[in-house]
Amino acid sequence: MESIINRITRGHFWHFHGGIHPPQQKFLTKDKPIRNLPLPEQLILPIQQHIGQPGDLLVSVGDRVLKGQVLTKSKKPTNQSMVVPVHAPTSGIVTAIKNSVIAHPSGLSSLCIFIEPDGEDKWQERNICEYPELLTREQVIDKITSAGIAGMGGAGFPTHIKVNIQPEINYLIINAAECEPYITADDLLIREHSATILDGINILERLLTPHHILIGIEDNKPEAIKVLQQATADNPKIKVCVLPTKYPTGGEKQLIQVLTGQEVPSGVIPRKLGIVMQNIATCFAIADAVIFDTPLIRRVVTVSGQALDKPQNVWALLGTPINYLLEQCHYQNTGDTGQRNKSNVNANKHVIMGGPMMGFSLSTDQVPVVKITNCVLAPSKDEIPADNKEVECIRCGQCAEVCPAQLLPQELQWSAKAKDHQQLTKLNLADCIECGACAYVCPSQIPLVHYYRIAKAEMREQHVLHLQSEKAKTRFEARKVRLEKEKLARETKQKKAADARKAKMAENTPEASNAKSAVAAALARVKAKKAKAASLQPEEKLAEKATLEKDELQADKKSQVAAAIARAKAKKLAAKASASKLSDAETEAPTETSGEKPETDTPKVKTSETEASQAKASQTKASQPKEVIPKESVHKTNNYKKLKIAAAIAKAKAKKAQKLAEQNQSENSDELPQNKAETSLNEKAEAAQAKKIKDDEKAKRIAAAVAKAKAAKAKRQEQQNKQNQQEAE
Amino acid sequence: MAFWIASSPHNHTQNETSALMRLVIYATIPGIFAQWYFFGWGNLIHIALAITTAIVAEFTVLSLRESPSHQHTIKKQIFDGSAVLTAVLIGISLPALAPWWISVIGAVFAIVVVKQLYGGLGYNLFNPAMAAYVMLLISFPLQMTSWQPPLELMNFDLGFTNSVYVIFTGFTTEGFSIEQLRVNVDGFTMATPLDTLKTNLTVGLTVGESMNNPVIGENFGIGWEWMNGAFLLGGLFLLAKKAIHWSIPFSFLASLFICSLIAFTISPDSSASTMFHWFNGACMLGAFFILTDPVSGATSIKGRIVFGALAGILVYIIRKFGGYPDAVAFSVLLCNMAGPLIDQYTRPRTYGHQVQNKSTGSNK
Fold first, then answer.
1. Taking 70 as the threshold, does the pLDDT of residue A447 lie above it?
2. CA-based end-to-end distance of chain B
3. Residue A323: its chain B contacts at CB < 8 A?
4. What pLDDT score was predicted for residue A486?
5. Which candidate from B5, B299, B353 shows the least CB-CB separation from A395?
6. Do B135 and B198 fall into the same domain?
7. A375, A185 in Cβ contact below 8 A?
8. Total domains in the fold of chain B
9. How close does chain A come to B75, measured CA to CA in Å?
10. Are A346 and B294 inside 8 Å of each other by CB?
């Protein structure tokens, strides 16, 4: 451990494989101070500017907002969720909330809040915290969370997740490498605001308690290095590491390798190695948030390129449209936008968000500045020609020489063109950091990274499809097994019942039947009484809690089942006495109740589809006995059966929904559609339960009445039978 | 306002394949000059013939392959320098006074069969120039082994006109045939130094005795040593320009050096010296201009070192034990075949893979 620090102190660093030296072009902006811009006419705030989920809107159209007012918020406990709020960058009125083109390579549209500044720039109430040392850890993290800070280096990972780490941290690495050409935003920020940055680093030090703090900075920023060295002189933990300029030193994995000699294993986050990396601009934002209670509403943006007359670093409010920035820096091609829209000249204009190596072209100049926007590049035609001169690969291997991930770009390219996903996986396409070094050196001018992006997207899509089909398959298999089981159970039961019937037929003497029917009638009477008693206390029951309801429902069910049994028995007796050919009812009645049970108890998660089919199956099953029910009670029993079925289905649904919810939680998948499905299912289940309670009341009463009627009828029939028998004798 | 959309990275080195090819062609100039100085106009005429044929062949095939709407791409592909470079290499490697149809057939075969039928630039498995050379050597052994001796050893004055006459008619203006031109004052047919050595060893002479042959001169072969030296110079220029990677020339020359050194140490009478091998035949041309052809070679640095070393060993084995005096073309083709296999086994370790031991090691 000491040796690493010794090496760093001596200024001996490790190397990462490959790397390139593109023309720096930082001179365009690096000697001018960061400029404050007047308020733009409109601010467009995408509600998602980070990796994770967007928050929920807190404002609506027409609302007046104050500077720093929070506009979106997470529903869940904020410290753990991947939601980062956004804030109003100035005071004004929310004019619209609609989809608009956001800063995304594909020109994607997303929900944005449009704010028209009122020009007053009025702050919401702020509590400036002069002694951040006095805050507890939780308070600091809370402040960072509510300030909406996401990694400002480019990825936009929620910072509150990254600072809320318990395991031991060896190195806190502050990334100030800024290896992309043109960009000087961090450089200028360090030179002008080193004190605040240091405050931010101190806050991070308290949160993470790292053994060492390393600030990685490339040697092309001598002024910034000097300022940093002066500012950190009295903290022995902090080492300013001046690194040789080489692209992409600022890549997380590359910087870790250069500073510590360690490689981050594939698919592992640096935290596992005891390393946390923060961008230097993020440190500034943290200090701003914790000390000055200022949420992340502005950032330094390098507006550069030879198509601008006055390239400069600016403090841009988040949501500032790019065209405003270009205008402020005197973009040569603006002015006659209306005419150019129609002509082809416009198609050759090129504006890049981010650096020339990893930035992406913008499809329109209405795209707003977001939390990850460190540069807006408007190159002239000579600077970055906009034509594609791709020719065939000649396997020169220069790409493999410069690849910092030690991949084989030329082989990846062939496999990507051939859509050979297996080979791509074998060649570790996933480890490509898309730095663009390979495409930069390629003498055949092949846009290699472009091919990789397409291949990655295809593979992601296929992976999702694969997972879905796997899920469907297991579901189908489970269903098949279950149906098979049920079928078997049914068959054995039927067989048993048939055997029993045969046995009974064998001893079918009038004495036996007499005795049996008498017992059955008595039993039915008792059951009917019970059911009546149960139905007499409905009001109290309703008042009881949901947990108790379940037991109660079971009791209800029992009484219902009992009534049904009684009914069936009575019927059976009647039937037996007459001809015994209708005795199917006996076999069907138990199957009905037992048929429902496995359904509600099955532990497997089913989709609503299988549910529906299940319900149908049980319904048909349940409706079978109605054929043998005497005519006068057919209608009533039908109703009653339906209600019962409805109750059973609702119960099953509730259970399933619960299970689904549990599984969703355990899977930790936060995908929106699933959540939606979950909630809607829950709602359905709740509604069904409510209905069921009402229905149950009715059902009980009906059941009691029916049972009574049945008993009476059974008696009557019995008498009749007796008479018949006597007559026959 | 809508903008031009491009994928990152947006900036780019000014490197182009065609520029690379041009640079390689320029780098052959010292070697060609040495060849002209010592062997006359013959090879220059063959180079011109081969270039013309190659461009015509390239144009014909590309016209067949590409639709007429791609005229500009055809033009671009013809002048990307790859066909010209192939033709130049064929022209250099042919015997100076070989008949004209040798270079024409060679160029057509190289472009049409070896390059375009395999899919064009970037897809050929074999080095086109060397594949053509081997095809010619096997098909027309007489013409392909009738090496012209250096001008200073020849009995006849062979100017530009005579060279043209010999190449196109087989006879000089005075009516001498190639065979007559190759005979020295003593009435012996002169051969290349490598050939001479091989023949002498079979008739029982030692290497030391062979070195007295007039063809070899003071060092390793009149003309040949300078030609190789000039190609070495061109190669160093390419290395300095970073047009080629050091790995293949280095490993090729090193392995040839080591092989010949071992043999020379064991039996100096039957083995030529290391420098004799380095400065004879197509050694330097092969090391810097042919083996370094990226398309048909290995891609990774490790792979290229293996590739070059293999070529060096093969050259030595064929020169020493094989039936042909020189072996660069054969070993290049054999290595081309081994290229994909070498690539397969010399894949670099991707960052972050199989890193467990190393990272824990450096932690402690």
1. yes
2. 57
3. 1
4. 95
5. B299
6. no
7. yes
8. 2
9. 13
10. no
**Based on the domain organization, do B186 and B210 belong to the same domain?**
no
* Contact yes or no for B4 and A347 at CB 8 A: yes
B170 and B204 both lie in a single domain: no
Percent of chain A with pLDDT over 90: 29
Residue B361 lies in a domain: no
Chain A's closest residue to B73, CA to CA, is A391
**Among B4, B122, B351, beta carbon nearest to A393:** B122
Reference B247, options B201, B294, B281, B204; nearest CA is: B294
Per-residue pLDDT, averaged over A163-178, amounts to: 85
Domain boundary among B190, B213, B242: B190
Please name each of the domains of chain A with its CATH number: 134-293 (3.40.50.11540), 388-506 (1.10.1060), 508-666+675-728 (no CATH)
CB contact, 8 Å: A436 with chain B? yes
Question: Which of A265, A364, A440 has the CB atom closest to B12's CB atom?
Answer: A440
Contacts of B294 in chain A (CB under 8 A): 394-397
B103 token code pair: 């270079």
> Last residue of a domain, which of B135, B166, B190?
B190
Q: Where does residue B157 rank: exposed (0-12), middle (13-18), buried (19+ CB within 10 A)?
A: exposed
Minimum Cα–Cα distance from B364: chain A residue = A1
pLDDT at A8: 80
Mutate to test the interface with A, among B7, B79, B124, B292 (most CBs of A within 10 A): B7
- Residue B56 inside a domain? The answer is yes
- For the CA atoms of A709, A713, A714, A717, the dihedral, rounded to the nearest 10 degrees, stands at 180
Report the predicted TM-score, pTM, of the whole model to 2 decimal places. Answer: 0.70
Mean pLDDT of chain A: 79
B262 and B126 within one domain: no
pLDDT at A687: 61
Would the CB atoms of A265 and B7 count as touching at under 8 Å? no
Left (φ > 0), alpha (ψ -120 to 50) or beta: where does A657 sit?
alpha
User: Could you tell me the residue range of the domain that residue B317 belongs to?
Assistant: 191-346
B10: in domain: no
d(CA B157, CA B151): 8
- Looking at beta carbons, which residues of chain A come within 8 Å of B122? 392-395, 444
Of all residues in chain B, the one with the smallest CA distance to A449 is B8
Domain shared by B159 and B206, yes or no: no
CA distance A155 to A152: 7
Q: Max alpha carbon distance in chain A (Å)?
A: 123
Q: Please tell me whether residues B197 and B186 are part of one structural domain.
A: no
Q: Would you say the ipTM is above 0.85?
A: no
Above 70 in pLDDT, residue A443?
yes
Q: Are B73 and B122 in a shared domain? A: yes
